[in-house]
Amino acid sequence: MNKRYIVQLIFNVFSSKRYFFKYLYFFVLVLLMSVTQTLAQVNLRGFEIATTPSWVKKYPKPKLEDNYKLDLVLIQSDEQYNHITKESFSHYYYYLNNIDGLNKIKSFFWKYEPSYQVCKVNVVNIHRGDRIIPMNTQLHTEFELYGKQIGGNRYDEDAKIKVFFEGVSVGDIIEIAYTIEGIQPDIYGKLERIHYSYQQKFRGKDIVRIVYSNDQPLFYRTLNYDVESKISIGSTYSSIEFESSNNKELNFPEVPQWYSTNRKIYFFESDSWEDYIKLNLKNFKLEEVPSKKVKDKVQELTKSITTKPDKINAILNYSQKDIHYLDYGLINPKRPETVLTQGFGDCKSKSLLTIKMLECLGIESWPLIVKYNGFDKRLLDVYSGQTFDHCVLEFVFNGDTLIYDPTNVPQKGGLNDKFTKDFKYGLRIKKEEKEITKLKHHSDNSLNVFVSMDTKDDGWGKYYVNWKIDFGGQIANLKNDLYVEGGVNSVFESISKELLGYTYITSSDYNLSFSFEKERPNSILNIKSKENSYIFDDNSDGATVFLPRPLYSWFKIPKPEDLGEYFTLPKVIKTNQTFKIPLTEWIDFTSDSSNFENDWIKYKKKTWIEDDTIYASYSAETYKTFLDSSSYQDVVETIDHLKKDMTILLEKNIHSETATNRRYMFYILRASLLVLVIFTVWLIIRFRKKRRALIHKLRSDITRLEKEIEDLSI
Fold this sequence. Notes:
714 residues; 5 domains; alpha+beta
């Protein structure tokens, strides 16, 4: 149906009533067919069964080993990517070792981006002994489309294809392969891929292969394992492949979040950060001036504010509190006007809006691409966007460059109170930038604790304990947010586990209250015990001691067998803690003080007696958030020294005269109470016996008198 015929048809419909209903019926029929076809395409999108692409290299079927310990075993994986055609091929063999393994793979699914990718199922076979049972013609698949809308407008979408395996049995091998075609439309097309090795469930071969044009450079970097590359060079294209194997369970050490222990291979074709910076400059369009809508919003937020710092702070608070976070699939940020209208944005979109709003105040700022948990310095020369996963911004004020994360929970306080994670390194999206930048980390996390013990000692060392915990910095922001969501019990539960080191107490044991200032990053949790309890400990020598729990439990490091190349130090940067203990007669205490400092911690302690009360004051500040494993033994010795120094000795010798007399009195009192109870029981029993004898005698006398009266009357 060409355009000329359509025009003539429309003319006939409107010029002849005779053919009106005929053509109307025809139009409706065509429309219904078109809609039906469109719906069918939408519903079936991704269900296409297609042959394996010709460029894919075929590898032999894996052989089974003996005595698999896993229920469901991945015995071979080969992942191949053609950078020329932008096709990604994935091929897996799973062995169903037992009934639990069978239940774990009732279905298999993968995700892709339907806006710019097409997915094709290539192979689904069941290998049963020497038989191969193809499933393609009877394949049960389901397609799920996940769309995000804001105000009825499309925001983003994802798709999932699920393949079901009916008729499989224990001992079968399931083979599945699929291809995803297409890449994000907002990138240059540079090769940037990561291959992850399936370490935990993998017992067999792991293969990765990249096909690329001969006129394109290719670089790679392996992480956490050594594997040799095999390069094949053709007339127009080449390929590189890696093959590794694993037949045992791997143990992963405890390491900082930024330090990855997973096996990875990074593939990239850039030899500097300039390409990635240019790509982001293209997508962010920082040269565009703020729109009228953005300017009007800035005017609305700052019209009653006189100082520039407060104006900046108003914009920062707005982007954190009023623009809600919503993930978005593309690296191209949404425009500031769209984010303002919708009230939603991902990290890139929220950062760009904040940058344009600050520009209205004459504040220089730019996007900063980072790794959320911290950039691994082993990847400093891996020139790929795959090494990052987050976007924040930097702005300049009074000659200082400050980092701001608009996706954080709303933060109170001024400009210097804004907290970000320790990103370590970041890539500044600026025209003159060419290298990645080592970043300064600002943290004002603080914890102040004041503990008082009521002098209601009953002679056995039991006290009513009151805690006052003052939070500062991002800890306060997080606890305030937790309080708003779950109340004071939620705050208490998190504190009792994280800081107090008590896992056996519950909120019902205490009277709790929580307060915070609305515009400041601080808050106070008050904990008052309802019943007295024994709060002291006995050391290995039998002496009675007191351990300052929040500080004592703060020092946690991995066990030697879990040690990795790096390990994490405490998250609380600064802490001041004071304890008040009533001085009773059984306590034998000597005051002292100490100081300690090395390259990662500064510590100070002072104890004294005043008004029949023992005071113990501690302060500590850490200079680093992690150390390498070569410092582990030094840290162990430092922590042992500090824990001994923190311990307050209340009773030097459990066999001292005071302690002995106190225990003798305890035993005498217990014996006296026992004698009193026995004597009381004896008196009651004796009284009851005499009462029963007296009643029996009275009844006998009454019977005798009745008989005598009866005889007299006769």
